[in-house]
Amino acid sequence: MNLPIYSENEYLLAVDRLALHVNNKDIFSVSKQNGGVGLTISKDLSKKMYRQSYYKKCLFKDANLMNIGFAGSKFIDTKFEDCIFSNGNLHSCTFKDVVFTSSSNKTNNLDNAGFHKSTFTNCTFENLFIYSSGFTETIFFRVKFINCTIRLCSLENAQFADCTFINVNMSTLNIEYVDFENIKAQDCIFPFHTICSAYGLLSQLTEFGNNKIFSAYSETLSIQEYKKLLPDFQKYYCKNEKYFPLTNIYIATNELDLAYESIMAGIIRTIQVRDFRSLKYFCKLVYLNNIFSVKQRRFLYENINKWISTEQFSLAEYHDYQLSASMIRDLLLNEDSKKPTLIFYLETNINPYEMEKQVAFLT
Q: For this UniProt entry, which residues form the secretion signal (predicted)?
C-alpha cells in the first residue's frame, strides 16, 4: 500500500491541534484505552470515550461508568459488580459470558443506560433494578435474569431466545413488539396489557412456574385467570382496530383463519394511516409463525403492492415506505424462520417504483 507514513512528532502536533476544537479531549487522546485481559477496574471512568474496546476475563467492580462511551465494544467472560451505568452509551456492543450483578443480596441499579442493538450471549443479570434503559433491537440468547425488576425500558424489536427468567418483576414493562422464543419463567410477574402485543409470549405462558400477571384490581392474576379474559381482549381490540394483539390472540387460540383475516385488516389499516413501522411488524408476525402457506404469504405481498400503488403518497411518506420495503418483501417471500429458504434473483426491466408492473409480474 502507498499510504503516507508520519513521524511521532507530526502525529502529536496533529492531535494537539484537533483537541483544541472539542470539549471531550479523550476523543483525540494519544493514550487510547482499547481494553485488556484479566484486568480489575474500579476507578472513575465517567465521561471517558472507550469506543470499540475489547475486554476479556475482566472485573469491573464499583466502577463509575456514568456517561461512558463504550459503543461497539466487546466484553468476553467479564463481570460488572456494583457498577454505575447512568447515561452510559453501550450501543452495538457484544457481551458473551458476562455477568451484571451486585456483591451482596442488595439490589443494584442499572438505570438510564443505552444498550441498543447489542447482543448478549450466555449472560446473567442478577439482583438488579433495571430502569429506564434502552434495549431496542437487542438480542438476548441463553441469558438468565434472576431476582430483577425491569421498568420503563425500551425493548421494541428486541429478541429473547432460550432465556430464563427467575423471580423477575416486569409488571409495568412495555413489551410491545418484543420477540419471545422458547423462554422459561419461574415466579415472574408479567404486564397485563402488552402480553398480547409481544411475539410468541401469550402462547408460551402456561400454569407451570407459578407465574402471575399484574392486576390493578386484584394485584395479580394466575395465567388461567388471565386467559379467561381473552374474549374480552378480543372484543376490545376488534372494536378499536388494534389488529396486532388481536392476531396474537387468534394464533394462541389456534383460530388461524381469523388470524389471517386480522393480519389483512391490520396491513390495510397501517397503509391507510401511513404507519409503515407497524406494517413491517405485521410481516414479521407472519414470518415468525409457521402457520401460513407460501400462497397466503405471497397473496399478502401482492396485495401490499397493490394497495400501496393506489395510495397518493407524499415524497416523505413514500421514502418512509421504501425504508421498509425490502424487509417486507424478505419477511413475506423468504419462507418462515423455521425452514430453509432457497433464494434466487431475476433481472427485469421493471423499475422499483412501478408497483403495478411488479404485481402483474408476480402473479
A: none
